[in-house]
Write a structure and sequence with these properties.
By secondary structure, the protein is α+β, with helices and mostly antiparallel strands. It has one domain. Helices cover about 55% and strands about 10% of the residues. The protein is built from three helices and two strands. It has a two-stranded antiparallel ribbon. Helix 1 runs antiparallel to helix 3.
Length: about 120
């Protein structure tokens, strides 16, 4: 029975990290040249739960920005700057999916706790 709780706990940890990655993306949505990160989940060792396999950066560039009109030098004019490649709509869809996965695993942990409480009530 403890394996069930360990599985749910590992998933809660993994989806907590995923939520932090999404929050970081949203916090930097207006940061020039910021590249969004993505969390990839996988099966924990021996099939016991979920783990974060990788946090990777999206390589797609953001929208080009117009050159600064205040400080234009020859070198700066040649370098094209880009906006962040974070898309709010994608981040919110990912956030909702991550929240639902987190909630499902929290429900597993609560159910396990309730079942153990019932078992103890029967035994005592």
């Amino acid at each position: 029975m403890a394996a069930i709780l360990e599985s749910a706990a590992s998933a809660l940890d993994a989806f907590g990290v995923g939520t932090q990655v999404i929050a970081n993306n949203l916090a930097n949505i207006n940061t020039d040249e910021f590249q969004a990160s993505r969390t990839r989940y996988g099966e924990a060792p021996q099939g016991q739960g979920v783990r974060v396999e990788e946090i990777s950066r999206e390589s797609a560039p953001g929208s080009p920005l117009p050159p600064d009109r205040v400080d234009i030098s020859a070198a700066a004019a040649e370098e094209a700057r880009a906006a962040s490649n974070v898309r709010a709509e994608r981040e919110f869809v990912d956030l909702i999916a991550t929240e639902r996965a987190y909630e499902a695993n929290a429900a597993v942990a609560r159910t396990y706790d309730d079942m153990m409480g019932t078992v103890l009530d029967i035994l005592v």
